[in-house]
Write a structure and sequence with these properties.
Elements: H1 16-45, H2 47-51, H3 58-65, H4 69-81, E1 86-88, E2 93-95, H5 98-104, H6 116-123, H7 126-135, H8 141-144, H9 147-168, H10 175-181, E3 184-188, H11 194-202, E4 207-212, H12 215-227, E5 233-237, E6 249-255, H13 264-273, E7 275-286, H14 301-317, H15 329-340, E8 346-349, E9 356-362
Parallel strand pairs: 3-4, 3-6, 4-5, 6-7
Antiparallel strand pairs: 1-2, 7-9, 8-9
């Protein structure tokens, strides 16, 4: 034996270049994480919006946003070296390129800046998640609120604005005609309810009901509906597993909800039970594949599995739930829908969100 190794074993010699390349990738990942914080700061402080007014020195940019120049100058160092801003050293001028501006400012679905807050928020629970690795259980959904409510609203609002009524709903055969004529619709796990507000405005002959466990989210939903003067949409704090309306719905929708749930099987069975025969179920979920090996070429996969570890999985396991996870995938989704009794499932790409897929199915007509 030599140092715990038998003389027949040959020590593995590592290629220094390979070690250096891997270490470089790790520091690239750490740098990307830190850059996400800088994007969050730029979004929170209005720096990106200020930069859309044209090239500026650090002082001019700080003045536009009403901020302290020294902080702005240091922040600019990060976003210039991070490839977000351009810098003219001769004139000491910073420019936000048009492509970057399209992705970091404005009301459209292409503005991804609000999602940067999600990274910072997830990091605040690392210690509790690490504890769950050792002891089991998880971090309950309540621990993420109210911050999580605001972040998810900010991230999804523009996507709904730009694509829900004209892009997503027409993908379900006959749904728009039914909504135009008048239908009963439920959004289960509705969050702040913005999707239902948009639909209630677009389809005044239909009635809409939103259900969610988060009281803070429901309060925001009610406030927005009231501000819009809508009388055809209601919101309730409700355990969706115990949902039992007086009449069945013509359509039920869930937006990135099922994978977080304690009892996804029971909830899908409840969706089926509360749909009228022939009714439509429209489910939006992350468009992943169920088998890990089938996600290896997906550039979004690392973020999605990490998101699941830090939030979606743990909020379910915290309550002794199924722990379906963000990446339960298309194949598992189809299996769960079939087990609940639904008919054929159409899986479609989201018209404005590269992460999500749209699952459209129906409760079969009774014989």
């Amino acid at each position: 034996m030599i140092g715990g190794m038998t003389t027949t074993e040959t020590p593995t010699e590592l290629d220094p270049a390979a070690v250096g390349e891997f270490a470089g990738r790790m520091f690239g990942a750490y740098g990307g994480g830190m850059l996400a914080f800088m994007i969050d700061l730029g979004h929170r402080t209005g720096l990106f919006d200020a930069a859309t007014q044209g090239p500026a020195t650090s002082q001019e940019l700080a003045d536009r946003a009403g901020l302290h120049e020294r902080y702005v100058r240091e922040w600019l160092g990060a976003v210039v070296t991070g490839g977000i801003f351009e810098y003219d050293a001769k004139n000491d001028v910073y420019t936000l390129p048009a492509v970057a501006a399209a992705c970091l400012t404005g009301p459209g679905a292409s503005n991804v800046a609000p999602f940067s807050g999600f990274i910072a928020h997830m990091g605040t629970h690392l210690q509790d998640v690490a504890k769950a690795f050792k002891e089991g259980g998880g971090v309950p959904y309540s621990a993420f609120r109210p911050g999580f409510t605001d972040i998810m609203d900010a991230g999804s609002r523009h996507v709904f604005d730009g694509s829900l009524v004209d892009g997503v709903l027409p993908l379900a055969p006959g749904l728009v005609d039914r909504l135009t004529a008048g239908a009963r619709v439920a959004d289960i796990g509705c969050g702040t309810g913005h999707a239902l507000v948009l639909m209630a405005k677009a389809f005044p002959n239909s009635t809409f009901a939103g259900y969610d466990l988060a009281e803070d989210a429901i309060e925001k939903a009610r406030a927005e509906a009231q501000a819009e003067g809508l009388t055809n949409v209601t919101f309730e704090v409700q355990d969706i597993g115990a949902l039992a309306p007086e009449q069945p719905f013509d359509a039920v929708m869930t937006f990135d909800t099922i994978h977080d749930l304690v009892d996804p099987v029971g909830v899908l069975a409840g969706v089926y039970a509360n749909l009228r025969p022939g009714g439509t179920y429209l489910m939006i979920e992350p468009h992943m594949q169920t088998k890990l090996e089938d996600n290896l070429g997906n550039p979004m996969a690392p973020m999605m599995y990490a998101t699941s570890t830090l939030h979606c999985l743990t909020v379910s396991l915290a309550e002794g739930g199924a722990g379906l996870g963000t990446c339960f995938g298309e194949q598992k989704a189809i299996e769960l829908l079939a087990d609940a009794g639904f008919g054929e499932v159409a899986v479609l790409p989201h018209p404005a969100d590269p992460i999500d897929g749209i699952f459209v199915t129906h409760r079969p007509e009774e014989a």
